[in-house]
Structure prediction request, 190 residues.
Amino acid sequence: MILPIRAFGDAVLRKHCHEIDKNYPGLQELVANMFDTMESAHGIGLAAPQIGLDIRLFIVDLSPLAEDEDYEDIADELKDFRKVLINAKILEETGEEWKFNEGCLSIPDVREDVKRHETIVIEYYDENFVKHTDTFSDMRARVIQHEYDHIEGILFTDHLSSLKKKLVKGKLMKISQGEVAVNYKMRFPK
Prediction:
């Protein structure tokens, strides 16, 4: 089932999310619905707050990037990179910070350069509640950091300089008021 994505201004996007356990009701269906929702919006990551749930759950699927010539040097790593991360905790961020132009399904039509570390060590549970501790670099680390921010109540626009924040303020206001055209289901703040 395709769910509406919460737009900038929705209070759930600012919540520090709580952990869940393996008995969370309808977990497998929720994960399937999140993948359907993300794919219908042509995204590569989606966090539970973006569909209105303040739980520590996010998904990523970087396989669409494997076809992009910009990522041909890591295409093999990206083509099968589809993950569910539950109760994630970043243990370490290392390497040089690098800028990349980011966007967000909850903040359509806004893209800005954001600095993030090139490598992370993250602990999480998968959809079967098997615990993992993995190290990721490159786009894998970047997308995970972006989605991890969501479960911490942080948006990519929070990483912008004061000047950049002022420049996008008008666009953000319009999004929060529903004055944006998107080709996927969205729910705007009331």
Summary: The chain has a mean pLDDT of 96.
